[in-house]
């Protein structure tokens, strides 16, 4: 029984150690979503994760997979520095974008280089909202595997600049109340204080922050308030 408890404790320690090492190496490599990773980042992430899983169950010599994780992590970090400083290394590691379509011409050679057939290309077009290829000026395969589109001039949405308009710039909203609690740091960052918040809540019919689920401060004197309780029932999705 003592051996089982001892072994279980050792597994728990190695698992926590592998989790801590994986967290530190992930922070070292930078915050990226899966859609932002290139092929090299993806392979390195899988490899480091596999080594971390091995370390969690390694009882005899847990330092061996730990050192392997450190080597992989430092290698990925070093390559990231090189790709930031050298265009040649960046092109070799991450590759270059490929133009798949431009001005009504689909480049079959680049489709083959991208290991993509016409059906896949049409799927990417439809996913991005283009069911008519005449609406596309240029389609580019990015190095992270996504396809980006430049719409034809007559198909893109009208912008205020097209109409010679000068709309007011919207500012980033800052949450100052969440779940009935005031967030003093956010209130200070928004350039406001408790007196202003209390006044704005009274103007909107609230007796205090405890009645507020969420309050967002924007530029000027604006405060968007969402009540803690509402009489309106949420509609069901069809």
From TrEMBL:
Residues annotated as domain YetF C-terminal: 85-216
**According to Swiss-Prot or TrEMBL, what is its membrane topology?**
Multi-pass membrane protein
Query: Superkingdom of this entry's organism?
Result: Bacteria
List the record's Gene Ontology CC terms alphabetically. plasma membrane
Q: Which UniProt keywords apply?
A: Cell membrane, Membrane, Transmembrane, Transmembrane helix
Listed InterPro entries: DUF421, UPF0702_alpha/beta_dom_sf
Membrane spanning residue stretches: 6-25, 37-53, 65-83
Q: One Pfam family name from the record?
A: DUF421
Localization of this protein: Cell membrane
Annotated family: Belongs to the UPF0702 family.
Q: What is this protein called?
A: DUF421 domain-containing protein
From which source organism is this entry?
Vescimonas coprocola
């Amino acid at each position: 029984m003592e051996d089982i408890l001892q072994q279980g404790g050792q597994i728990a320690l190695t698992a926590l150690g592998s989790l801590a090492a994986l967290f530190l190496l992930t922070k070292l490599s930078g915050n990226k979503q899966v859609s932002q990773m290139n092929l090299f980042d993806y392979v390195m992430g899988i490899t480091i994760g596999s080594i971390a899983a091995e370390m969690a169950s390694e009882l005899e010599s847990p330092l061996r997979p730990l050192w392997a994780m450190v080597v992989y992590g430092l290698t990925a970090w070093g390559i990231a520095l090189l790709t930031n400083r050298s265009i040649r290394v960046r092109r070799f590691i991450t590759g270059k974008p490929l133009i798949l379509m431009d001005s009504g011409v689909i480049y079959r050679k680049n489709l083959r280089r991208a290991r993509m057939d016409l059906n896949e290309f049409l799927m990417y077009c439809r996913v991005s909202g283009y069911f008519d290829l005449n609406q596309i000026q240029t389609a580019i395969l990015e190095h992270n595997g996504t396809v980006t589109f430049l719409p034809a001039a007559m198909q893109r949405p009208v912008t205020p600049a097209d109409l010679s308009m000068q709309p007011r710039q919207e500012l980033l909203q800052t949450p100052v109340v969440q779940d009935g609690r005031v967030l003093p740091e956010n209130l200070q960052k928004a350039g406001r204080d408790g007196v202003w918040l209390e006044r704005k809540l009274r103007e909107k019919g609230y007796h205090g922050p405890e009645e507020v689920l969420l309050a967002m401060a924007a530029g000027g004197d604006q405060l968007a308030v969402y009540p803690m309780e509402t009489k309106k029932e949420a509609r069901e999705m069809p």
